[in-house]
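[Backbone geometry]
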Amino acid sequence: MKRRSFLKNTSTAATALTLFPGLITSCASKNISTIGVQLFSLPKLLENDFRGSIKLLAKMGYREIEMFGPFPFSVDSVKEGWRALEPQLGFSGSGYFGHSPKEVKAILNEFGIKATSTHTDMETMQTRMPLLGEAADQLGFEYVGLPAIPEEKRKTLDDYKRVAEEFNKIGEQAKEVGLKFAYHNHGYGLQEMDGQIPLNILLEEIDPSLVFFEMDIYWTIAGGADPVHYFESYPGRYQLMHIKDMKEKARFSGDGGSPSQWVELFPYMSTVGTGVLDIPAIISAAEKSGVKHFYVEQDFVQNPKVALKESFDYLKAIKL
């Protein structure tokens, strides 16, 4: 190419980029900046060796965790219910796994991992939010998430409307102690009930400045809904996300409202990138919608040392 032509083409390209700076970002690809993990993916390892398990996650590449309760400050009824489940779960650990908050924070700092979110129950949020605020001050997490609405609170559309009101109040309480309240959707509330979709009622009646959402892509698809649709329809509402894959497309045997139906679908869970879900498309839509925290979650995975590493490697290679 002649020098004059080269300079002319270069000048034209420079002008185009000046007039349309979006061309730079639209053409450039990027990876997920930070990948986290929900600690429910490896509870037995954490129970046996908390420090060693955090070290293992850091070595894999994870830089964020989402914790789960009950915690020492959780309401007694929830702790009693958890103890009753121990034989079925095969482990008893949760919360700080026998450590103090100071010890947990020191271990996380040692391996360069941040606790950015935690799950706990609705009653503890409603009655002990100041204690959750103290825990956040000690550990640094920003979000407190509700993993599921109690079954007795979601029988009718009016129930969901009352839950929306309760969520707004919890969101106000969380804001007062410097936290953000997030609702993690499960597989219920995704199909029509008396002509309306309950999850849509929550999204439309909840104050978006007080309540945020955490998308679980597996349970959303198992409930017959499309995660991409929700990301595109409600931009800015989803700020966190649980990622797991599905060996083959599976749906709940009923409305997805009972734990027994959840357990039925555990065998269909697979390591991220080995199943049939279009993970890159979902994550791309999530990122455009405003999701800030991506957590791998593989409930009761048999070999977390292998599965969580494979999931991390797959996600890290995705170009957005």
Summary: The longest helix spans residues 157-176. The CA atoms of residues 41 and 299 lie 5 Å apart. DSSP finds 15 helices and ten strands in the chain. The longest strand covers residues 114-119.
